[in-house]
Design brief:
The complex is a heterodimer of chains A (225) and B (452).
Chain A lengths: L1 E5 L3 H13 L3 E5 L2 H10 L4 E5 L7 H10 L6 E5 L6 H7 L4 E4 L4 H12 L10 E4 L2 E4 L4 E4 L2 E3 L3 H12 L5 E2 H9 L9 H13 L8 E4 L3 E4 L4
Parallel strand pairs in A: 1-2, 1-3, 3-4, 4-5
Antiparallel strand pairs in A: 6-7, 7-8, 8-9, 10-12, 11-12
Helix pairs in contact in A: 2-3, 6-7, 6-8
Chain B lengths: L6 H68 L5 E5 L5 E3 L10 E8 L6 E11 L2 E8 L1 H51 L15 H33 L1 H16 L3 H33 L7 E4 H18 L3 E6 L4 E4 L1 H17 L6 E9 L2 E8 L31 H11 L3 E6 L4 E8 L10
Parallel strand pairs in B: 7-9
Antiparallel strand pairs in B: 1-2, 1-5, 3-4, 4-5, 6-8, 9-10, 10-12, 11-12
Helix pairs in contact in B: 1-2, 3-5, 4-5, 5-8, 6-7, 7-8
Chain lengths: 225, 452
């Protein structure tokens, strides 16, 4: 994918550029606000990664400007640690996701992937399917190869979230935000417990595992191979 | 003091000037109106006298008129009269030697004894072959309005003097008050943070301003105290985890195998995450204590939030051999921040989960009362000793027996901060056995419609 990274810190930018490059992405980098705005408005990118605090022009100002001029590229806003209103401000300015600095690279990568291949909003599927696992979003039922699987409401939401991002890594934080709307990090292993219960209901006794744990990153629903 | 540059003195001078101009305008209007009214009144009197004398002539004849003129002319305070022959020769009365045409006129008469000139308003009518004159000396009117004019001149200077004096006194007072405020501000700038502006106790606008400024200073003081507290907390409590992190990184340099190196670096990353978590929690608490989140308060159903938290944590509690129960008595609406309330309840539940042994029952519940809404989390664990209950709400306080469990000692501090933001009270009590934490939210007027 072609990414735009607007980040003023040289070291962070160099690290992210290298790591994103290794993950198979092409990265343009802008070090200051005006350059970032010019690139964001002029070039075509799959995802824009935008730091909030920038020289010359604030990240949110860039975001508002490109949104006002009709650029619909998904934007991931990087916010400072502890700014509890930053998320709301970032989303209100037209951001699609946010990530608090400092972050684990796996988290950033997972979110970039989730953003880039997000289906257009008007396309609302009524069912999700991965291999022989089928989730009917209207009837709220789950079947695997004809076997009916009973899920608790939250387990269903976790599965739905994973299936919507099928083939991509979903992090613990993404699940906390997407399923529970928790914007803090509980010490308790809420996510792990739910995923392990889900896994026991879906994958137990099957030859193929569909719910995979990605070490150091999160979870992924996909067919083997 | 620089009198002319003082705002209040300038105002006083301006007021005095405006009043003086007003008095002058009033004087002109009053004098003119008085004069016109007096002239008109005089004309009416003269006209009435002439009518009366003409009537006298019709009844008594010329003899009667002569008699009347003589009588009236000698009466003090009455008008002046005169009767002349066909060619203007004086017959009787004081005005008899005045040569005036028939009708209204103002005549100039030279006094005989001195050289003064008198102005006389006179009406002349013909009675058969005689001429009747009735008039009045205008000097009396002039004297009258001269008096009025003089009174106004005195008033004019009086207003300027009085206005100036009062203005000066007021400006001195106001200036002194401002000097006090300025002195207090200067003292605070110079480092005396406890200094406040003295109040006069008069309850006037300057007292109100001073009281507001004092409240602002209190608030700034409290915020500075928080910042100070946070920085010393960080310095004190991050030393241990940072030291551990350093040791792990050093160990990774000395590692003999790749596997060992990876393991120590991963452990170091975990330490790093723990440190960042402490930072995030501290900043979050500081921001909550800043109070800015109040602007985003909405109507929130505590029961609904508690139910969601209970639902999220129940499976994990079960996994750990504990039971999490949710008890509700319907909805309890408060005005608040849903996200922070969720985190507060999550912290309380996690607190219960970490400080109890397997087999424990943790109960989260919401009760709506007349006095407001109450949230409680009860466990049947070891509880907290009475003497430590006040302390656990502070930052980084971890009781001895929980030193070994993971945690930053910030969970309950965040609970306390969120409660303070909502004007709620946190109380810790003995649940016999175990601990019950209650958060009591006060009832507010705007909530009345929301409680069902």
């Amino acid at each position: 994918m072609k990414l735009l990274l607007v980040e003023d810190d040289e070291e962070t930018a160099a690290y992210l550029r290298k790591a994103l490059g290794e993950a198979g992405h092409v990265v343009d980098r802008a070090a200051a606000g005006r350059e970032g705005l010019m690139l964001a408005a002029g070039e075509t990118y799959d995802v824009i990664i935008l730091d909030r605090l920038l020289p010359e022009l604030d990240g949110l100002a860039i975001l508002r400007t490109i949104r006002a001029s009709g650029v619909k590229t998904p934007v991931l806003v990087l916010t400072a640690l502890g700014g509890i209103d930053d998320r709301v401000e970032g989303l209100e300015a037209g951001g699609d996701d946010y990530l608090v600095k400092p972050f684990a690279f796996a988290e950033l990568l997972a979110r970039i992937n989730a953003l880039a291949r997000r289906p257009p909003p008007q396309d609302a599927p009524t069912a999700l399917q991965v291999g022989e696992l089928r989730v009917d979003l209207l009837k709220r039922t789950v079947t695997r190869g004809g076997r009916r699987i009973e899920l608790q409401p939250k387990e269903f939401l976790v599965l739905e979230f994973l299936m919507r991002h099928a083939g991509r890594v979903v992090t613990r934080t993404m699940l906390l935000e997407g399923v529970w709307n928790f914007h803090f990090d509980p010490k308790t292993n809420i996510v792990e417990t739910h995923v392990s219960r889900l896994r026991s209901k879906i994958d137990r006794g099957e030859a193929e595992e569909l719910i995979h744990t990605v070490r150091g990153a999160g979870y992924c629903v996909r067919t083997p191979g | 003091m620089r009198p002319l540059r003082s705002t209040s003195l300038r105002l006083a001078a301006a007021y005095a000037a405006v009043f003086a101009v007003a008095v002058a305008v009033l004087a002109v209007v009053t004098v003119t109106t008085t004069r016109t009214a007096l002239r008109r009144e005089l004309d009416r009197r003269i006209q009435a006298e002439v009518t009366a004398l003409v009537q006298e002539y019709r009844i008594e004849g010329m003899e009667g008129v002569v008699q009347a003129v003589r009588e009236r002319d000698s009466t003090p305070g009455a008008l002046n009269y005169g009767l002349q022959g066909p060619h203007g020769e004086p017959l009787v009365g004081r005005l008899a030697d005045v040569a005036a045409p028939v009708g209204w006129s103002t005549q100039v008469i030279r006094e005989t004894d001195d050289n003064d000139v008198d102005h006389v308003r006179v009406l002349v009518v013909s009675l058969w072959d005689r001429r009747l004159l009735v008039g009045q000396n205008l000097e009396r009117i002039s004297r009258l309005y001269g008096l009025v004019l003089r009174a106004f001149v005195w008033a004019f200077f009086g207003v300027i003097l009085l206005g100036g004096a009062v203005g000066l006194a007021l400006s001195r007072d106001v200036e002194r008050r401002f000097a006090e405020i300025s002195a207090a501000a200067q003292a605070i700038i110079d480092g005396d943070m406890a200094r406040r502006i003295p109040l006069k106790g008069r309850g006037d606008d300057l007292d109100a301003v001073a009281a507001t400024l004092n409240r602002m200073l209190d608030r700034i003081g409290a915020l500075m105290g928080t910042v100070h507290q946070v920085s010393s907390d960080i310095a004190h409590d991050l030393r241990t985890p940072l030291t551990r992190l350093r040791q792990k990184l050093e160990a990774s340099l000395r590692a003999v195998s790749q596997a060992e190196r990876t393991a120590t670096v991963e452990a170091a990353l975990q330490d790093m995450d723990a440190i960042l978590e402490i930072f995030a929690a501290l900043l979050r608490i500081a921001q909550i204590e800043g109070g800015a989140r109040r602007a985003g308060f909405r109507s929130v159903d505590l029961g609904q939030v508690a139910a969601a938290v209970a639902e999220a944590f129940a499976p994990s509690a079960e996994e750990g051999g504990r039971r999490l129960e949710f008890r509700s008595e319907g909805s309890a609406f408060i005005h608040g921040d849903k996200e922070l309330l969720t985190q507060m309840m999550a912290n309380l539940v996690e607190n219960g989960l970490t400080h109890t042994a397997p087999g424990a029952v943790i109960e989260i519940g919401v009760a709506a009362a007349q006095s407001g809404a109450c949230l409680y989390v009860r466990d049947d664990g070891p509880g907290i000793p009475v003497e430590a209950r006040g302390r656990v709400l502070d930052r980084f306080v971890r009781l001895e027996h929980s030193r070994s469990t993971p945690g930053s000692g910030l969970g309950l501090a965040l609970v306390a901060a969120v409660a303070r933001l909502h004007d709620a009270e946190v109380s810790l009590d003995d649940a016999a056995p175990g601990l019950i934490v209650r958060v009591s939210f006060p009832r507010r007027l705007q909530q009345l419609g929301g409680v069902s």
